[in-house]
Amino acid sequence: MIEWQLPRYGRGPYDEVPPVLERVLRSPSSDEEAWQKLWHLLATEGLAVSAASYAALPYLRDIARAGETTAVDRALDLAGAIMAGVHQDHGADDLIRTLAPVIAELKQMVSRRLNDNDLSTATAMALFRAHLAFAGASVWSLAEYDFEDGFYGVGCPHCHLSVTIAIGVYGRYSAYRDWDQGDIRRRSLQQADPSDLDGLAAWMHETARDLGISQLAEGITWLFGRAECPECASTFVIGDQYAAENEPHHSTDGPVPAGGW
Predict the structure, then answer these.
(1) pTM of the complete model
(2) Contact 235, 227 (CB under 8 A)
(3) Mean pLDDT, the chain, as a whole number?
(4) How far apart are CA 65 and CA 73, in angstroms?
(5) Does residue 94 contact residue 82 with C-beta atoms inside 8 Å?
(6) Is the pLDDT of residue 245 over 50?
(7) What is the pLDDT of residues 128-147, one digit of tens each?
(8) CA-CA-CA-CA torsion for 106, 111, 112, 114, nearest 10 degrees?
């Protein structure tokens, strides 16, 4: 029986987690139902987390240490989803601080797995998101990367107009979205040169390219390109503005995940 002792911070599936986690630990590669239940308890809809979610990280680390590929990928995927919620109001900041070595090890495991050449596109995307979560970029870990039919809403940082950004088969443009007329006053986006990207954007592009996900790599060059506001004609970097508006609020004391790309 696993040792499971947690302070009763607010909400949390404290009593439900241990038996499900026991099932996963017994059969980490084959008990799909147990994994689904664990996801529901620890990262509901991939978004909601609690103190119990972070208390489970050492067990997910142990599964990932065992080295069986299916179980490793499942454990790292779920751990990443949990870390993407680190800034939520879960009340577990002190617990997370004590888990700093575990979190750092999980991030290293994600980085190593991203360098393997046997990844499916789905697994590669899950690890891509997990790495961003462990590095503290929750907004990009949770972002949609639909560059076939992608739309992003941002406010112009200069005049504050609500601007629609299209990146996909309908075009690559900024516009004002009218209720009756659709996207009007369209302006073409300016694609970023990959060599001009730096920091997080450069890591995202280079990793997508190395993973062979060409649509993601190209989409990122548009996402971190420049848009023109259809109202005031000022320009801004789309990704910077999107992140500024969508980065999750920090929890009370703000524990910091393992940083760096």
Answers:
(1) 0.91
(2) yes
(3) 90
(4) 11
(5) no
(6) yes
(7) 999 999 999 999 999 999 89
(8) 120
Residue 253: the pLDDT is 47
Q: 72 vs 259, which has greater pLDDT?
A: 72
Average pLDDT for 173-184:
92
Q: Are 62 and 107 in contact (CB under 8 A)?
A: no
Spatial separation of the C-alpha atoms in residues 261 and 256, rounded to whole Å: 14
- What are the residue ranges of helices labelled H in the chain? 17-26, 32-42, 51-55, 57-66, 69-83, 93-98, 100-114, 121-134, 138-141, 199-210, 214-223, 238-246
pLDDT over 90 at 108, yes or no: yes
| 217, 209 contact by CB (below 8 A) | yes
Q: Which position has the token pair 């009007």?
A: 184
Whose structure tokens read 């996900």?
A: 213
The number of beta carbons lying within 10 Å of the beta carbon of residue 63 is 21
Largest CA distance in the chain: 63
Tokens of 235: 């320009």
Residues in the chain: 261
Beta strands in 104-246 (DSSP E): 149-155, 162-168, 171-178, 182-188, 226-228, 235-237
